[in-house]
């Protein structure tokens, strides 16, 4: 069986592979493989967020252009999927850095304009 675990999201159940999830998350590995659970509580997250989290786990990469990054970060932190946590944080840092650089350039431009 490939989809042998159910993630119960706030909007309904989402099927997933215990093996794929276990390769990404030691927490889920413990619950599913050792605890023999077949239903996991993801009630705090929308079905869309859970599906995006699963997509990242299956593909081994995260599409940073997607919405719900805060929820995906929270899921990955809760389930100790550290590569996703780091990817989201690095993307956030890069966005803040670009914003700060853009703001600095704008401020410098305004300063130069006022100095004339």
Describe the structure in your own words.
By secondary structure, the protein is of the alpha+beta class. It contains five helices and three strands, in the order ββααβααα. It has helices spanning 18-24, 26-34, 47-59, 69-78, 82-115; strands spanning 5-9, 12-16, 39-42. A three-stranded mixed β-sheet has the order 2-1-3. Helix 1 (18-24) runs antiparallel to helix 2 (26-34) and helix 4 (69-78) packs antiparallel against helix 5. The longest helix is centred in the last third of the chain and has 34 residues, at 82-115. The chain is elongated, with a radius of gyration of 19 Å. The N and C termini lie far apart (72 Å).
General form: elongated
How would you state the average pLDDT, rounded? 86
SSE topology string: EEHHEHHH
Can you count the beta strands?
Answer: 3
The largest sheet, given as strand count, sense and whether it forms a barrel, is: 3 strands, mixed
Spatial gap, N to C terminus: 72 Å
Beta content:
5-15%
**Rg, nearest Å:** 19 Å
* Total number of helices: 5
The assembly state of the depicted protein chains is single chain
Uncertain segments are none
Percent of residues in helices comes to 55-70%
List the strand order in the largest sheet.
2-1-3
Structural class computed from helices and strand pairing: alpha+beta
